[in-house]
Amino acid sequence: MKFLLGKKLEMSQIFNDKTVVPITLISAGPCFVTQVKTKEKDKYQSVQIGFEKLDPKKVKKSQKNKEFRYLKEFKIDDLEIADYELGKKIDVATFKEGDRVKISGINKGKGFQGAVKKWGFSGRNATHGVKHEHRTLGSVGATGPQKVFKGKKMHGRMGNKRVTIKNLEIVKIDLKNNLIAVKGAVPGRRDTLLEISNSQMSNV
After folding, report:
1. Contact, 182 vs 26, CB < 8 A?
2. pLDDT, one tens digit for every residue, the chain (204 residues)
3. Distance of alpha carbon 25 from alpha carbon 8, whole angstroms
4. Which residues have a Cβ under 8 Å from the Cβ of 81 and sit 6 or more positions away?
5. Other beta carbons less than 10 A from residue 83's beta carbon
6. Distance between CA atoms of 161 and 142, rounded to whole angstroms?
7. Which of 2, 19, 58, 90 is most buried per CB count within 10 Å?
8. Which residue, among 27, 77, 11, has the nearest Cα to 180 in the 3D structure?
9. Nearest alpha-carbon partner for 26 in 51, 43, 50, 63
10. Three-state secondary-structure class, residue 69
11. Domain residue limits, the chain
């Protein structure tokens, strides 16, 4: 059972014997178990963990009873619930180099965009007769039922949605500084909250 919360720092690269490996640096943990939910009491099993302790001197009124800035739940199996108790610390030592993980987060919001940018449409031909329509959507309706079908790819808000990337490889772990280097890109901008777990896990 492996899961952790962290924040995206930046992308970088490292060198191995033959090639350059693009990586994303993640500041992960330490997290602490704040609640253990059981089937008998809560109708389902999960572990709630907290990330980023709040400074009592800087806590707002709306955060008066909060100890952590972020709280997330992860479902666990019957055999593993005994491994967790209130206050247990979870850090990057949970993982090891070479592990395959899935990472979830909110991707970058790009505002209201046209269909060419949002969906990769080719647009109209840049030839004689096409005027002011190079990036238009084209036909959207049908001849028979005279309406636009639900789910049609059109213009609209782009990004700012939860995205999960699976099968990412952990290249390097820095225990001293609580850093994880993952091969490839992960969702979001700098300081985006990320949920890191092994592929068998599912979060609530």
Report:
1. yes
2. 788 999 999 999 988 888 899 999 999 879 999 888 888 888 888 889 998 888 777 777 766 677 888 889 888 887 777 788 888 888 888 888 888 999 999 999 999 999 999 999 988 888 888 888 888 888 888 788 888 889 899 999 999 999 999 999 999 998 889 999 999 999 999 999 999 988 654 455
3. 6
4. 36, 38, 45, 47
5. 11
6. 30
7. 90
8. 27
9. 51
10. strand
11. 3-108+163-198, 113-159
- For 3-108+163-198, CATH gives 2.40.30.10
For 50, 146, 168, 199, the CA distances from 184, given in Å and listed in that order, are 26, 45, 7, 17
**Maximum distance among all alpha carbons in the chain?**
72
Instruction: Give the number of residues written for the chain.
Output: 204
Q: Compute CA distances 105 → 125, 161, 172, whole Å.
A: 37, 8, 21
Contact between 163 and 186 under an 8 Å Cβ cutoff? The reply is: no
User: 183 near 13, Cβ under 8 Å?
Assistant: no
